[in-house]
Fold this sequence. Notes:
The protein is α/β, with parallel strands linked by helices. The protein has helices at about 30-35, 50-55, 90-100, 160-170, 195-205, 225-230, 240-245, 255-265; strands at about 10-15, 40-45, 65, 70-75, 80-85, 105-110, 115-120, 135, 150-155, 175-180, 185-190, 215, 230-235, 250. The strands form 2 sheets. Strands 5-4-3-2-1-12-13-14 form an 8-stranded mixed β-sheet. Helix 3 (about 90-100) packs across helix 4.
Amino acid sequence: MVPSPAAFQLVASDIDGTLIHTDGTLSPRTAEVLSALPVPAVLVTGRPVRWLPQLYDQMVEPLPAICANGAVVYDPGTDEVLQASPLSVELLLDVTERLREAVPDIVLAVEIENGRSFWYEQGWPVSGGAPHTVRVLSTPEELTSVPAVKLLARSTSSTPDAFYELVSRTLGDTAVATHSSSSALVEISAAGVTKAAGLAWLCEREGIPQDRVLAFGDMPNDVPMMTWAGRSVAMANAHPAVREVADEETLSNDEDGVAAYLALAYGIASGA
């Protein structure tokens, strides 16, 4: 028998498309509910560590985070990476060689230094970042010169789902491919690295049983976490793959669906 929502010992939530609004803001109501929760909460995201301050600045207290789709477990209190599972240089060489052969127009980038720095090839769209953390590469060889917690691949000629399927077929069991974007962007991790794996590591460390984890998500990279958790809740705006595996559904991210569900489950009133 599945326990009631209030019986869960940990709340795990994706960020983009789930916890925050489409414009990137965290609503005051969601911040209020998270701070009033009687159980701990953790962020489980595809974002790198260096992107977390944008969200932490909007929260009452920063939450621990599982970043890069499970490759990095981060403690904001100490600014410490508790655990990391990067792709090795050897694996990066193998994977990038396969991808370049299969996708002629591919453009690649890597999250390095546990997600504190980002290197990208010419042609990669970059929205910003400090010069010491974001850098364009001079040669293709630089891309595979150090371990990376995530490899990112883009195509200009494919649709998102078609590109994901192509990358998945090309890599097979060599690495884990997933996607969480409306563009032809695929995120690649070392074999066995998923949001579920990162969350499982943290739960084992904290002594929290798997069946007492409540998870929220919206995109295919959330599916492993949603199927692993004791109970999973899809956003109304979720990808069909997420809605298919979720136990329940809540309002959309722009309607503060996570806050609405948690406030009802834990009896958190407005102004708590």
